[in-house]
Design a protein that fits this description.
There is one protein chain. With 256 residues, the protein is an alpha/beta fold. The protein has a single domain, classed as P-loop containing nucleotide triphosphate hydrolases (Rossmann fold). The strands form 3 sheets. It has a 6-stranded mixed beta sheet with strand order 6-9-10-3-11-12, sandwiched between helices. Strand 11 and strand 12 form a beta hairpin. Helix 5 runs parallel beside helix 6. The longest helix is centred in the last third of the chain and has 16 residues. The protein is globular and about 60 Å long. It starts with 5 loop residues before the first strand and ends with a helix.
Length: 256
């Protein structure tokens, strides 16, 4: 079997003494979009934080590999350097750190010396133009006083600048209005169309299927109670929109 992809096999994880993930199997292929949906409390964010090495989340079993490399053996910073990106549901504000400096430091940390300063600035300006972002953003402090939509646009700019191998977007659509949601969709589309990002694999974690109106998913997974209980195509998200998660729960109960 090919080692290519973000491969999650029988992953178990807990927070303190409570088991949250109860055996997750999932493969995100390069250039593909996977949507992971589920009700609140199903373990979606636990999966995201477990993948990226948050110390609060303890992996107790299973494996995660990124193009054959053992992700779980790496500290969080080296996971990012290996090509794994996480966008947060609630991005933190960091007063005193300007956006431009943060983005340059992030690029250098993940891809040291990949671009000289002049070329980095051009890349940044090009990506901002694509995302319809005012250059004044660069002089502001990171997320300080930003609206929800501005925070998510900035995360999409960071995604575009870093062009990771695999991007985990944890409820990026949470609290966004239609314009901001469309901007997120446009950012992902722009990255996928670029030379740097055309092979980026996405795992989009969401409660509602709204974002899938702007980002076409190749595969949709449903997570309930720490397990992926159903996998299908985009029609599965449409079904959840029509019928809710209770119908899925009933089906699982009938099979069990």
């Amino acid at each position: 079997m090919s080692a290519t992809g973000l491969r999650i096999t029988d992953l178990h994880a807990r927070v303190e003494e409570k088991e949250i993930l109860k055996g997750i199997d999932l493969v995100v292929e390069p250039g593909k979009v996977h949507a992971l949906m589920g009700p609140n409390g199903s373990g979606k964010s636990t999966l995201a934080f477990s993948l990226t090495g948050h110390p609060k989340y303890q992996v107790t079993g299973g494996t995660v590999t990124l193009d054959g490399e053992d992700v779980l053996a790496l500290p969080a910073d080296k996971r990012a350097r290996a090509g794994l990106f996480l966008s947060f549901q609630y991005p933190a504000a960091i007063p005193g750190v300007k956006v431009a400096n943060f983005l340059h430091a992030a690029r250098q940390a993940v891809r040291p010396d990949s671009l000289p300063p002049a070329k980095f600035r051009k890349l940044l300006m090009d990506k901002m133009e694509t995302l319809d972002m005012d250059p004044v953003f660069m002089g502001r402090y990171l997320n300080e006083g930003f609206s929800g939509g501005e925070k998510k646009r900035l995360e999409m700019l960071q995604l575009a600048v870093l062009a990771p191998k695999y991007a985990v977007l944890d409820e990026t659509d949470s609290g966004l209005d239609v314009d901001a949601l469309r901007a997120v969709g446009d950012a992902i589309g722009s990255l996928r169309a670029s030379d740097e990002g055309k092979n980026t694999g996405f795992l989009i974690i969401t409660h509602y299927p709204r974002i899938l109106q702007y980002v076409a998913a190749d595969v949709v997974h449903i997570m309930i109670d720490g397990r992926i209980v159903k996998t299908g195509g985009p029609e599965l998200a449409n079904r959840v929109e029509r019928e809710g998660y209770d119908t899925i729960r009933e089906e699982i109960g009938a099979i069990a």
